[in-house]
Design brief:
Layout: H1 5-27, H2 43-68, H3 70-76, H4 80-110, H5 112-116, H6 120-142, H7 146-149, H8 154-162, H9 176-191, H10 238-266, E1 277-282, E2 292-302, E3 305-317, E4 323-326, E5 338-340, E6 345-347, E7 354-355, E8 361-363, E9 375-378, E10 381-385
Antiparallel strand pairs: 1-10, 2-3, 3-4, 5-6, 6-7, 7-8, 9-10
The protein binds FE2/S2 (inorganic) cluster.
Amino acid sequence: MAPVYFAVIPYAAMVIAVAGGIYRYFADRFSYSSFSSQLLEDQTLFWGSVPWHYGITIILFAHVIPIFAPSLWVWLHSDPMRMLIFELIGSALGLLAIFGLLALILRRILSRRAAAVTSVMDWVLLAGLLLQVSAGAYITLFYRWGSMWYVYTAAPWLRSLFMFSPRPDLITALPWVVRFHALNAFVLIGLFPFTRLVHIFTVPVSYLWRPYQVVIWNGPGREAGAIGTGGNGGGVTRRGFFRKAVIWALSGAAGIVTAVPALRFIINAQPLSGLVWSKVGDVGPLPVDSPVSMNFEMRSTEAYMHQMVLHDVWVVRRSAGGFAVFSPICPHLGCHYKWDPEMAHFECPCHGSVFTIDGRVIAGPAPRPLDTLPYRIENGTLYVKWERFQVGIPKKVRV
Ligand code: FES
């Protein structure tokens, strides 16, 4: 799939969602609702809606945390037992969401009353959601430890989109099902203004202060008969025209703002940050042929965000003389690997890749050796240039 899709489709979806969402809100505010059909059928609805909403909400939240707090996420997953627990909880929530969604779909098919009020866009939305959660379940089953490798692959891609500096190359090396899952998520976002998904932003707090006697007659062709809404019999007043113009201006402005990054990507104006030397520590006490994990803080600047980020590297003092400094990120799918002193090799817990002390692959799916980082020693102190490389491909390509 051409990389350009991963920069253009997300922004196109956001433009449609923001501009269309604003337009719908102002032009047809009372359609901002889930159009609940609870009164028509509520038994199956309970078994569908409750598991679906609990499952999908928590899963979505778990997709968002690594985008904005990757260090916290990596720390949470740095212990194999915690990683296993997260994987199990994620799988259980995924099953819960699938169960709920299937119940909602069956209800729309089997309940004649619910089927009667189901629109074409409802079916499109349900099909899109089913594809999305099925792809998510497939990834969980066949590409284990997704909660870990996500933080080094799709999460940085999503972060780059939020930073208005799209990096589609971060995701194009991933398996097709992961790429489909990512793009389908944005297709669903693009469907937002045309479906009942708008209810995500329906927070009914206005009922707290809205006068209770207001009666709104809302439906196709009923504007002329509106009670208390200032209906004018169908003619276009100056006020109505002005209101429409404001809605179009707002929607258009929001659309343009979100379209700019996509255009910027198309004309290839994305900036690349330069590498800097970071001080890691004293190499004097390092043992020979026994890799040591060392960490250091580095100032990171992405778009308009500046923050101090903690990185760690594997440092090996070789008996033959000299050092090797390895990135801690497994070149398979980005998990953190460990040194096993008994076996005298590096081992990745995610899919079992094994590397020698000098980084060569001796087992598992890793497509290339461990990534070395540039280093220099000055007065006994190690300095490293931190960089990241694409995972899942045989060549070492800088991210
Ligand atoms: Fe798969 Fe390391 S991430 S083996």
